[in-house]
Amino acid sequence: MMSYDGSIDADHSTYLIDVDAGVLQPPGGERWEFDDGLIAVRPHQMCVTTGIDDGEVKLHIELHDTQPPVTLDNWDEVAEASLTCQASLTLGELFTDPRPGLPQLAAHGPGSYRIRVSARGRDTAHEFPEEHSILCWPTPQAPPMSLKLTDQSGARYRHRLAQRRPSI
């Protein structure tokens, strides 16, 4: 297992994990296949939602060979999804080149990876540092899953999302 501790800058309450891209761009016209208030996923991208609009988020990254155990204690929100790449899974900020020093998430080369994002402190991000953990490992594709959804930032986001969906 390889680990990294550092930070990433949130921009518009977001940072991205992009598939096979050089310059990270904000989400565009494609529909998100999954969106739970912490992560939004489509085939070429994962968008991670932060509590702070613009600013630093503490980041812990672990790259595993196999699926790590699920740890929900001490986290407010936890979700995971799969992305498949031909070359890279790049973690970065909106409208910028990938930040130097951040690890390449596709540590085992091309293929399918599971990415688990955990967050705490989104509700108090303007007073105390917000913290995220990203765990990544190679594995076949699987449906996205919300493992824990308890913070108010995520609840507000899910409420706004539900209001925008057309009723049937």
Descriptive report:
The chain is mostly beta strands. It has a single domain, classed as Substrate Binding Domain Of DNAk, Chain A, domain 1 (Sandwich). Helix content is 8%, strand content 43%. It has one helix at residues 152-164; strands at 2-10, 14-19, 34-35, 39-42, 45-49, 55-63, 77-85, 89-92, 111-120, 130-138, 145-149. The protein has a six-stranded mixed β-sheet, with no helix packed on it.
Give me the secondary-structure topology.
Layout: E1 2-10, E2 14-19, E3 34-35, E4 39-42, E5 45-49, E6 55-63, E7 77-85, E8 89-92, E9 111-120, E10 130-138, E11 145-149, H1 152-164
Parallel strand pairs: 6-10
Antiparallel strand pairs: 1-6, 2-5, 2-8, 3-4, 4-5, 7-9, 7-11, 9-10
Number of strands: 11
* CATH topology heading: Substrate Binding Domain Of DNAk, Chain A, domain 1
Percentage of β-strand residues: 35-45%
**CATH classification, class level:** Mainly Beta
Kindly summarize this structure in a few lines.
The chain is mainly beta and 168 residues long. The protein has a single domain (2-164), classed as Competence, DNA-entry nuclease inhibitor, ComJ (Substrate Binding Domain Of DNAk, Chain A, domain 1, Sandwich), CATH 2.60.34. It has one helix spanning 152-164, and strands at residues 2-10, 14-19, 34-35, 39-42, 45-49, 55-63, 77-85, 89-92, 111-120, 130-138, 145-149.
